[in-house]
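writing this on my phone so excuse typos. first protein, seq and then structure
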Amino acid sequence: MARPPGGRLTVPDEIAEALAHARPRLGPLGQRVLWFDEIGSTNDRALAWAEDGADEGAIVLADAQSAGRGRLGRSWASPAGAGIYVSLVLRPAAHAMPLLTMAAGVGVSDGIAAATGLQTHVKWPNDVCVAGRPSRKLAGLLAEGGSSAERVLHVVLGIGINVLPAAYPPEVAARATSLEGELGRAVSRPAVLAECLAGVWRHYDTLTARRPDDVLAAWRARAAETFGRRVEWDEPSGTRRGVARDVDGNGALVVAGDGGTVRLTAGEVRWVE
């Protein structure tokens, strides 16, 4: 069994209790947990652990991050005690890769509802937002992997969830919100963590069992209010615009654009709210 790179293998009691309560629904997630009071990035530490042979399901948790990040190198504000900052080591089969982040996003959305009652929606490619308020982001996901020439060896799935209202940087404050800010009451971080991990495992297990249509149906149900919204993206010829219509079987965003249907798979997509 791989030795974890730094950190503690004991977590605060309330987190240990929540994980123990949810244990029958977690699969291997959280059987090994590496805890940090503060860290640069949970994804970086989980990647190092995965490369050293960590089993699927090992997770890195932190109370604060000084260098948390999201897609395209953006920073992820991670104030101490204000959110959930967790990275999961996964070793998915190749067929599970295209929809992995989507499965996890639905799992986080389900977990938030189970723990707090707050309804959320997912927004392509990796955001969880408040239902009815598409510009107010509660959570984000970032999948990063290591591979050989033949196959993907591991994927680290980072999840950041804003739980308490916090002093976010100005560039984040305009679009970020939190569970407690939306609900107007206290929320248990350990309960949200445990329920989100259970949700992620349930949909990931469905995906690895070769049932991608079930994952896509669940994602579409959670993303319904984003369809019909305008998006824009940059190409060498300039900025293009269109209307989001659906996702395809590989998780690409299907857009009705000026020149016909376009499938977007990577890069920057800006939602025009």
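second protein below, same order as before
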Amino acid sequence: MAARPTGRVRVAAIMLSCAGITLAVTPAQVRAQYGVAAESPSDALARHMKALAADSRNFQALIGAGKAALALGDTQSAAGFYGRAEEVWPSSPMPQIGKGAALAQEGDARGALPYFARAQQLGAGVLSFGLDRGLAYDLLARHSEAQADYRAVLGGQDGDEARRRLALSLAISGNRAEAVSTLGPLMARGDAAGARVRALVLALTGDLAGARRAIDAAMPGSSNQMAPFLQRLPSLRSDQKAAAVHLGIFPGSGQTAVASVNSPAEPPGDRLRSIEELLAGTANPPATVPPPAVVQAPVRPPPAATPAQPVRMASNTALNRTVGQQVSTRRYWVQLASGPNPAALPAEFRRLKGRHANALKGLSPYVAESAERSRLLIGPFKDREDASIFAEGLESDGVSAFSWTAPEGQMVRKIANE
């Protein structure tokens, strides 16, 4: 097992920033990689902090801030946000997933697994946590279980990162041929991170010369800087290999050397101000996040599963903004149902609300009509990420839902009579 690295030494960011291996890669980061404008983790964090300054029990903002903090490598702050989110909505699996992910990113794989188990008890599917549980399994040398989790995520929004991690896990297990073929779809479209992972796959399986050539092909002149990293990989145990390529944690003489997992665009200094200050209602938070001290929120093992009553998200009423009865400028929604007859959708919403009163309390339904079908929606939301967060929360309460982005010019009308 890769021990949790307490008191570890942080070395220059050259190793993993060059290798391009980062944890909790968000869909926004993946889109940005291919030149599509997207919100950065630091911008998302600042936005969610502003929302929390206005409403410290905003479940969406707490989960969103936790995800952004994880993307920035700030696991302690992320754990604090997820802990507060659990207080707001105890029956949601999302805070459990977040706390498990934070521990996995810290290298505490054994401590992370109970949170994923708790999330599963609360109704979460492997698609929502397999990427991070797979990491925990890899750190425990349970590589076949890790690979099963990564495979389960390949069809989801984090599929590219799951493919990269699967390739690394296969290489750690000595399966070079399958590891290389797993990266094939990424290599075919010129995925830069996939090319860097391929170099690690070669190094993990003992082909140091091939790894150096691959590094130089991806980043000319970088192989000399990466040489000490690559040369050590083949001699490590499989759990140590996983810690090295995923987290930059190397076994050392009395201490653990850790390479930064932050990309150059997201330096470790971009940290949160005190969570306690924020959630106490600090007014006018800054647009960018300065580097003051962070509240060290301990992560405790989750209790045994007990029945819990869903707590209504405090932000529900804020979702019901509309311009008259038509909305054309907001594009991000959560879809609850669809069908050919828009007149049947109000009754469908009443049926759903009768069965899931707590989850849908305070929400107003909308309809988007097209020639093919009509959609029953709730929203609108700030962006696709917020819609996805809300949809996941509804799914955890047994409501079939998913995020939907309206095409440009699509008119969405509020249902007048609920």
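The two ends are 55 Å apart (CA to CA). thats all i got for now
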